[in-house]
Amino acid sequence: MQKPSNSNAFIWSESAHFAVQIYYEDTDFSGVVYHPNFLKYFERAREHVIGADVLQTLWNQQGLGFAVYKSDMICHDGVEFADIIDVRTQFCFESKYRTIWKQEIWRPNATKAAVTAHIEMVCMNNKRQLTAMPAQLIALLNQTMPK
Description:
The protein is α+β, with helices and mostly antiparallel strands.
């Protein structure tokens, strides 16, 4: 997985954890998670970090939302039906327009991540134009940064 050239300079948030139950419908014929579903789990975990109420307020009151600009995902190991996985999420601010998310999926009792991803998100208005993140959102997310 490629890292941004200046990734060492980023200050990453504390790691957030989000549990996901793997249902049969999430899998292919062999009982292993169908790979596009990992992107859904990552999306849910990011929403958990920001908060659904915050995202809804941003959209309804300011016409602001987020879109994936770039995504890089590696599947290291299979995730299976009935697993309860831990989606681990960290983020940093790349600019006032963009956040970068490091996300991992861990199976129970694993010694390494089953899936890793690097996802870049941009803030956009309801006209699909790049827009700076509001100061109150940046302040809210800064609360998860290490002290």
